[in-house]
Amino acid sequence: MSRAMTRIRRCVLPGATCLALAAGLATAQTPRDDEGVFPPWQQGRNNDATDRGLAFTVPEIDDLADFHGDLTDPKLVLFVGGNYFFAMAPLVAEFEREHPDYKGRLYWETLPPGLLIKQMQAGGRVTSGNMTWTVKPDAYFAGLKKIEDYIRSGLLAAPAVPYVVNTLTIMIPKDNPAHVTSLADLGGRSIRLAMPNPAYEGIVRQIEAALRKAGGEALAEAVYKTKVADGTTVLTHIHHRQTPLFLMQGRADAGVTWQSEAIFQEQAGHAISHVDIPADQNATAIYAGAMVRAAAHPQAARLWLDFIHSGPALAIFERYGFKAYHAATGGASTPQGD
């Protein structure tokens, strides 16, 4: 028996009132969000598999949004910091156009860089929902500083290959109901925030630096300590998925993300906008990659590392607001970690 019918039988109010309450209950149980709000957001384009067999994806219910491609016999495995998951479909398509032998033979993950490292430390083993599998990357991509650290520790093989830079923005719902206009506003008690978790996501270092530039240590502590304690800051596990979703669901008023993520959401037609952060308060990230030591497909890894800073690849990144990295100017105002 449905919950609505059970309520009707137990209701001691007049019959019409009971029916109205039951109808209200039924309405409340109906998902309020359009299916397009939920990841994955790219209708299968972030998958280069040529034979997909049974196509079964139910947004919010049954999907693996940050795992892509065919694990059967990949010729190149990439672990990519998730903040440009949306660029991977056109990047892979261009790479396979230039190297047709790899068509349908790439597998890539776009989890936060810290989680990808944990997977690597677990021998490539990962569990999502009821599924467990093992896959070891040929190349790893994160912030330049982290790439250099992992080369020194022996996890990755030199050289580090930087390719693009990115800056922060404040992601907001399209109608900006909380009227957020600056980083300083994020310390307000009434502003509900979705913020990256320092335990998983390197972007927090840049965000905290930006908050200190905008409002000193008091603002950084308000956002990442006081508001976490009182529940008005929710910490994410995977901000490039959770922050826009929480905003579209009305569960948060703002969140700091990379500029490119907000641009993608706007291009996708989602009810998302952003507030620019002034240059003197912002932080610039340098994205880089390197081959994993003892990679199973070293030649393929080198091909991708050559490709990632090529003209065609940079043109794809520029669609989402990234800029090419230039060694002469660097591009990092704080150490990049995400």
Automatic annotation (TrEMBL):
Signal peptide: 1-28
InterPro entries noted in UniProt: ModA/WtpA
BP-aspect Gene Ontology terms: molybdate ion transport
Pfam families: SBP_bac_11 (PF13531)
GO molecular function: molybdate ion binding
Xref: PANTHER family: MOLYBDATE-BINDING PERIPLASMIC PROTEIN (PTHR30632), SULFATE-BINDING PROTEIN (PTHR30632:SF0)
Protein name per the record: Sulfate-binding protein
Species of provenance: Acidomonas methanolica NBRC 104435
